[in-house]
Fold:
Amino acid sequence: MSSQKFLVKHVFAITLVIALAAVATSGATSKGAGFSLRGLVLRAMPNFASAATAKTPANAPSVFAPDKGKLRITMSGQAVGSEDFEITASGDTWLERSSMTAHAPGSTDVKSAGQLRLSVDGSPLRYDWSAEALKKATGSVDFASGTAKCSADLGNASPLRKDFKFTSTVIAVLDNNLYYQFGILARLYDWKTGGKQTFPVLIPQDMVPGTISVESLGQQQAGNGKYETLRVSSTDLEIMLYVDGNHRMMRLEVPSSNVVIERE
Structure:
């Protein structure tokens, strides 16, 4: 394993930290483009038999609701960045946009942006992203019948391309450095059923698929409020996601890294 790949796997897989070195992940991530969410996936080539596969009836209400705001990103109590987000209805689909800027002491500025188009049941249709630190990279993913067709332009002669096949069309898109996408995940969770639920996940910048588990822990105190709490976890990473009574993302914590993302 190359030293670059080891650094990404060993350091980034267990942390969600903005203090970054200029490294390149294996796969699609640009050099210095940000930390990786690889630690959130359970395995590189997963079996999604446990993921939800039920189809949404025609004319069923959407799992989404309009939302707009800003997230403050802190690490060990120090503000290091922010993310602007918005989700709106767009015809018979929904469009979520996020843009994040962060700077930690001793590192370069990190910028990420994503635009995710979704069907009313939460199935992704298309995702476009950009990431910039020392270099800029762009990419896209087209989703059709459970297949994710990924493309990334790192400034090379030709874009990188990979396809991934999932047994469910409801796939959680959780990209590097964009946190409101966890708010989308909270909408995909079946609150009526509750318990621990498994979702297929795709990290577009890394071109990595996997699975995560999401479990409701009921109401818990976090920061200055009391929220409905979801534990998002894999074998390597645990994230606490806090939502209000309307299931809007209010706060996200990564206990192992002292990272807190909170709605302003």
